[in-house]
Write a structure and sequence with these properties.
The complex is a heterodimer of chains A (353) and B (333).
Chain A lengths: L3 E6 L4 E6 H23 L7 H8 L5 H36 L11 H15 L14 H19 L7 H25 L2 H12 L7 H28 L3 H6 L4 H23 L5 H13 L3 H26 L7 H24 L1
Antiparallel strand pairs in A: 1-2
Helix pairs in contact in A: 1-3, 1-12, 2-3, 3-8, 3-10, 3-11, 3-12, 4-5, 4-6, 4-7, 4-10, 5-6, 5-10, 8-10, 8-12, 11-12, 12-13
Chain B lengths: L4 H24 L7 H9 L5 H35 L11 H16 L4 H24 L7 H25 L1 H12 L7 H20 L1 H7 L3 H6 L4 H23 L5 H13 L3 H25 L8 H23 L1
The chains are: A mainly alpha (353), B mainly alpha (333).
Membrane topology (chain B): Multi-pass membrane protein
Subcellular location (chain B): Cell membrane
Organism (chain B): Jeotgalibacillus proteolyticus
Chain lengths: 353, 333
């Protein structure tokens, strides 16, 4: 039995190598993620048995279970899933582009930019009684604009005869510190309960998600995910280094801009609905790479699955650990992610020497 | 750049005089109108009037604290950069402030600590732990981590501490109110007694730093050269760790997290006076004091009658300079 099977559809239309081993692993990961999805649906302050879950999903079941699952749990789990996919794919793309496994959207300040805009939104549009003067539905727009602005700033400051990955990361870190300062200032200027609201948001939580949000985020992530898959072969090439990419006739800087825009779109979308859930964009692509290697055609879907599983798991733990209080999912992703990051740092270093 | 001895002395004296001037200005200007005559009178003939009270109990502590904190952060930055050969090394980048913030928030949420003095103690502890952690990471490798890796390690620590801090604050909203002003970093409203408590540590840090200045010069040439010339590099590194804990820990204890001074000032000072640590350390100290005094002074006027926390001010001033330095580092490596 051969591991690779070439697949060709039509004349030169679609052709790729089908990797059986990779397919098996991706399927397994998908099953694990699906498992977490169903466990999340069942667990919580009220336990719903798998049978009842199935009943609700197929349109039946008791009204009480319908309420819990359809109105409370399903939207937030779906948002967690979508956010995980978006962050993981954004991270995978950025890491390929920067050729540094340590880059991720939250470390280079894209999430930070979104935070500033969200806190600014909450503070500026509050009247003296503390009510918002415009609809909260504009909040995601503000977050996305913030992410975009941050990405543009990071990008243009690190531009100097082309885009150096190292510069991009360093400047991103500097800018995120700046964004933090702005956020703190806005929180101090605004009323305190807004600060507390903003604080939950900055840490990253999917609590209180609605179906409306799911229906906005879903097409957004889907489209960008498909474009990312189409970019996969370019990212594969970029990973080989500037010289090889140039020699192959690929317009490096143009592709970097496309990739940066793609990942900004993905991060902006997820930040808009779930806040700054950190380190998923770092961890998921890494784990994926370990499991199936670094060919982006398979890496992007695998990262997406792992990212979704991570965020759903973090949210589940956050709901259970201090019930009835909710710990934001972002706390757990950072608690696992930061040590993992430092471990990676050292592995990278010892590889070089 | 190597400067003549006369020029170096002139620079240091000049920055010292500037510092005295800025301390005076910091006492004089602000929301409450005062005059220089009132400042003198508040010492010679204190009459309990509003202006005298403000000068004695608010402005003077504030100016002195700003000077001490600015100087400590700058010198801590110089030594961290010498040790790591990393132009971006500084207390705030390495997660010292985030560590201090986490310690304070743990104290408030889990142990109901409320006084500024206990905040200071906790902050010192947290900063110390963070410094030891980052130095530990950095010393695992003989050649040291590259600037990028060290910076990323610091960013990861900052993110870790930061999200735990935020998680705790989410669970305890009243604590947020108590610590938010502290987390922004400010020299305002600090009791002078806080400074007297921290001053021995800070002073000890400066003294040790100056004592070892010649050895730092040798260390800056590279570890192999240094040990070849008979410098006990291992011991020296431990001393640097101690100095940084004293200086950065002491200043975060007094003023909360204030960033960017430790990056900006060492650069500026090196440009002005060269790399000889015997001159570099005092000049950085005075320049750091000047920068923080100035930032604090400006912070009073930006959104008067409210004040911008000085930690935010330094971030606003420091980011462009950070970007400038990062662009150069990114090119060379």
């Amino acid at each position: 039995m051969k591991r690779f099977v070439p697949v060709r559809i039509g004349q030169k239309a679609v052709s790729f190598l089908f990797d059986k081993l990779t397919f098996l692993r991706v399927t397994l990961a998908l099953l694990v993620a699906a498992g977490i999805f169903f466990i999340s649906l069942g667990l919580g302050e009220v336990w719903v048995s798998p049978l009842d879950i199935a009943k609700v999903l197929f349109g039946g079941g008791e009204p009480f279970h319908q309420l819990i699952i359809r109105d409370f749990r399903l939207p937030r789990i779906l948002i967690a899933l979508l956010v995980g996919v978006a962050l993981a794919v954004a991270g995978a793309l950025l890491q390929g582009m920067v050729r540094n496994p340590l880059a991720s959207p939250d470390i280079i300040g894209i999430s930070g930019g979104a935070s500033v805009f969200v806190v600014g939104f909450l503070v500026l549009f509050s009247d003296s009684n503390g009510a918002l003067t415009i609809s909260i539905q504009w909040l995601p727009v503000a977050a996305f604009l913030g992410a975009l602005l941050a990405a543009i700033l990071v990008y243009s400051f690190s531009w100097k005869n082309g885009l150096s990955p190292v510069r991009l990361v360093l400047i991103g870190i500097g800018l995120s510190m700046f964004m933090n300062a702005c956020t703190t200032l806005l929180m101090l200027v605004g009323p305190i309960y807004r600060a507390s609201q903003a604080n939950i948001w900055i840490t990253g939580s999917v609590n209180g998600s609605t179906w409306g949000q799911v229906w906005i985020l879903f097409p957004w992530v889907l489209v960008l995910f498909i474009i990312s898959l189409m970019m996969a072969r370019h990212v594969n090439l970029l990973e080989l280094g500037d010289d090889v990419t140039k020699a192959m006739g690929s317009p490096i800087s143009k592709q970097r801009i496309v990739i940066l825009l793609l990942s900004t779109g993905l991060v902006g979308g997820s930040v808009a609905f779930a806040g700054g859930i950190g380190f998923v964009g770092l961890m998921a692509p890494h784990l994926a790479r370990k499991l199936i290697g670094s060919s982006y055609g398979a890496l992007i879907p695998m990262s997406a699955i792992i990212g979704a599983a991570l965020v759903m798991l973090a949210d589940l733990i956050g709901r259970l650990i201090a019930a009835p209080l909710e710990v934001p999912a972002g706390v757990f992703t950072a608690a696992i992610g930061a040590p993992y990051f430092i471990y990676l740092l050292f592995k990278e270093r010892s590889k070089k020497s | 750049m190597k400067q003549s001895k006369g020029f170096s002395i002139l620079l240091i004296t000049g920055s010292f005089i500037l510092m005295l001037g800025l301390i005076l200005a910091s006492v004089r200007f602000g929301y409450q109108q005062t005059s220089f005559i009132q400042i003198v009178r508040s010492f010679t003939a204190f009459d309990g009037s509003n202006a005298h009270l403000v000068i004695q109990s608010v402005r003077i502590p504030r100016a002195l604290i700003a000077a001490a904190v600015g100087a400590s952060l700058a010198v801590a930055g110089v030594l961290m950069q010498t040790l790591t050969k990393n132009p971006l090394a500084s207390p705030s980048i390495f997660g010292v402030n985030a560590g201090a913030g986490l310690a304070v928030v743990i104290g408030v949420t889990l142990f109901n600590v409320t006084s500024l003095h206990s905040f200071a103690l906790l902050a010192f502890l947290g900063a110390g732990i963070a410094i030891v952690a980052v130095f530990g990471l950095g010393s695992l490798d003989r050649n040291g981590l590259s600037p990028l890796q060290l910076t990323l390690a610091g960013a990861a620590m900052t993110a870790l501490f930061g999200s735990v801090t935020q998680g705790l604050l989410v669970l305890n909203e009243s604590a947020l109110e108590q610590v938010l002003f502290w987390l922004a970093g400010s020299v305002q409203g600090r009791d002078i007694a806080l400074l007297w408590t921290a001053l021995p540590y800070i002073a000890a840090g400066f003294a040790i730093a100056l004592f070892f200045a010649p050895s730092f010069n040798v260390l800056a040439m590279g570890e192999d050269v240094a040990s070849g010339l008979g410098v006990k590099t291992g011991m020296l590194k431990i001393w640097i760790g101690i100095i940084v804990v004293l200086l950065a820990g002491g200043s975060v204890a007094v003023a909360g997290p204030i960033g960017f001074i430790g990056i900006m000032i060492p650069h500026l000072a090196r440009k002005l006076i060269g790399i000889d640590h015997r001159w570099l350390i005092p000049l950085s100290a005075f320049l750091g004091a000047n920068l923080l005094l100035l930032a604090d002074l400006v912070a009073r006027y930006v959104i008067m009658p409210q004040e911008v926390p000085v930690g935010v001010m330094t971030a606003l001033i420091g980011t462009p300079i950070f970007i400038y330095i990062a662009r150069r580092v990114g090119t060379s490596s």
